[in-house]
């Protein structure tokens, strides 16, 4: 008998995934956590009914949320990741030889532990001596930390459940405050077409930065169409990848050319931004 | 009571669309044709259970299949469209003031008639004096026509049902034969990740051209991730949009910058091409 899992994207649009095996299911203190083996997408992490990442294409999202900021900054030594419990963003950040320290703040320790067990290819960076994990609320962390960062990456779950505070302006102001004078912040900004209100909210929050841009990719696991990231910068042009010998080779989605192309917005996306 | 329509993309991945109203349903001599009003996507054309186009985002697909070739060619006066029964590609082609004649060959007259009735915003070009419709098999048309074209656009349905011949190498050789010495052919090439075999087949067929490229967009209505087009050219570089005063303004997805960016392929897509 086939087992299908249903993901509701909007009131009128759902995706169904055929499941080979339900590997793990628990209610953590923060959310419902599931690991499933999908018929078409490999193993997947699901939080509160939303597919977060799949082995099949996690590299697209994780490369694009990490390497754009890390290549736009001339010397990204101190990096902070908010969320990112599956470890994929940490894995990508640690590929940069210039990264001295990567702090990661994940509210739900069970996500990290479960991903280390079932998704070791994604959760491969946690043992790195440059990585420091904090299991606490990301919004609270950025308010109290004494750290000063070159890059802050917000790799949160959707704006429901435990991540809701990470979509508010106060969190963005606090991130601005813990960035050095030429720091860069990046946050995923959802789908501009399916979740326009969230996309606009993230863009609006970025107004604390003197420079802000949207860049785009598309991820088969996520809702169809463009998937957006918002990037704010105190000094450097985020759309320009530096040209140096420390570039990370062998990536599957990110290149310097992809970096530049991802900032070219179709007019209908630009129009949404202009209306904010 | 809610009515939902299910679209099967692969054996393990389906999309469900909530329907406000079923407006039309018939079995034509070629396929099952439906027009529905969707809860989230406006009115939609569905052929043999596959959503072909929706009012919500049809402009992305139709602009990107049309304006890239029409802007890469220095003087696209004679244009041939194979398929495209909803009229969206014809509408875009006719926006170019240099187009003298647009021949369109659609096998299923019922598609055109039904779209004129229910999707008039898409099917808006059929009355243009430059447009000439032929209701016949596209593969047969390109074999016998005496026409010589600047641009051939293959806007077919999926490679099942009546469009299957349009995915074979003979059809591509015939299209090459009816193109002038600096002609350009473009065909949609499905999803590189969901329908890799079809994507590879379209790319392989394009080898008849001295130049061939893939360019990408993403369309919310279609299966998630990148949506690909293959373009073959006898002379001009398809990735370069000409810079002239005849450019079409006011498009919602296509710009000259989007043109260039759409040819920048992530390595994992390039790798699929390299394996053909």
Can you offer a commentary on this structure?
2 copies of one chain form a homodimer. Chain A is of the alpha/beta class. Chain A has 2 domains: 3-52, Spermidine Synthase, Chain: A, domain 2 (Roll); 58-239 and 249-274, Vaccinia Virus protein VP39 (Rossmann fold, 3-Layer(aba) Sandwich). Chain A is built from 8 helices and 12 strands. The longest helix of chain A has 15 residues, at 58-72. The termini of chain A are far apart. The model of chain A has no long low-confidence stretch (mean pLDDT 95). The interface between A and B is large, with 44 and 44 residues. β2 (13-27) of chain A pairs antiparallel with β2 (13-27) of chain B, so a sheet runs across the interface.
CATH topology description of the largest domain in chain A:
Rossmann fold
**Count of helical regions of chain A:** 8
Oligomer: homodimer
Stretches with pLDDT under 50, minimum 5 residues of chain A? none
Q: Summarize the amount of helix of chain A as a percent range.
A: 25-40%
Order of helices and strands of chain A: EEEEEHEHEHEHEHEHEEHH
Helix-strand makeup class of chain A: alpha/beta
Query: What Rg of chain A is obtained from the alpha carbons, in whole angstroms?
Result: 18 Å
Largest interface between protein chains, with number of residues from each side? A-B, 44 and 44 residues
DSSP, total strands of chain A = 12
CATH superfamily placement of the largest domain in chain A: Vaccinia Virus protein VP39
What is the class of the largest domain in chain A in the CATH system? Alpha Beta
Roughly what fraction of the amino acids of chain A lie in strands?
Answer: 25-35%
Task: Using the 3D structure, state the CATH architecture of the largest domain in chain A.
Answer: 3-Layer(aba) Sandwich
Number of domains of chain A: 2
């Amino acid at each position: 008998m086939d087992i299908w899992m249903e993901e509701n994207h909007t009131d009128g649009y759902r995706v169904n995934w055929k499941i080979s095996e339900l590997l793990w299911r628990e209610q953590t203190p923060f959310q419902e956590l599931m690991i499933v083996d999908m018929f078409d997408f490999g193993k997947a992490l699901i939080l509160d009914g939303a597919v977060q990442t799949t082995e099949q294409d996690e590299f697209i999202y994780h490369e694009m949320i990490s390497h754009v900021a890390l290549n736009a900054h001339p010397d990204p030594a101190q990096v902070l990741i908010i969320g990112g419990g599956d470890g994929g963003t940490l894995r990508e950040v640690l590929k940069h030889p210039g990264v001295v320290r990567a702090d990661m703040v994940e509210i739900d320790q069970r996500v990290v532990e479960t991903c280390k067990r079932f998704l070791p290819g994604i959760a491969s960076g946690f043992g790195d001596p440059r990585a420091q994990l904090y299991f606490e609320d990301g919004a609270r962390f950025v308010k109290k930390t004494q750290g000063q960062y070159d890059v802050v990456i917000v790799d949160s779950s959707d704006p429901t459940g435990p991540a809701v505070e990470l979509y508010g302006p106060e969190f963005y102001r606090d991130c601005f405050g813990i960035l050095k004078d030429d720091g860069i912040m990046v946050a995923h900004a959802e789908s501009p077409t399916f979740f326009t209100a969230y996309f606009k909210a993230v863009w609006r929050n970025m107004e604390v930065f003197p420079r802000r841009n949207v860049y785009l990719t598309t991820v088969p696991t996520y809702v169809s169409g463009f998937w957006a990231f918002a990037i704010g910068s105190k000094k450097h042009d985020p759309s320009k990848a530096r040209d140096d010998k420390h570039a990370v080779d062998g990536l599957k989605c990110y290149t310097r050319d992809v970096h530049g192309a991802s900032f070219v917005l179709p007019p209908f996306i630009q129009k949404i931004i202009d209306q904010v």
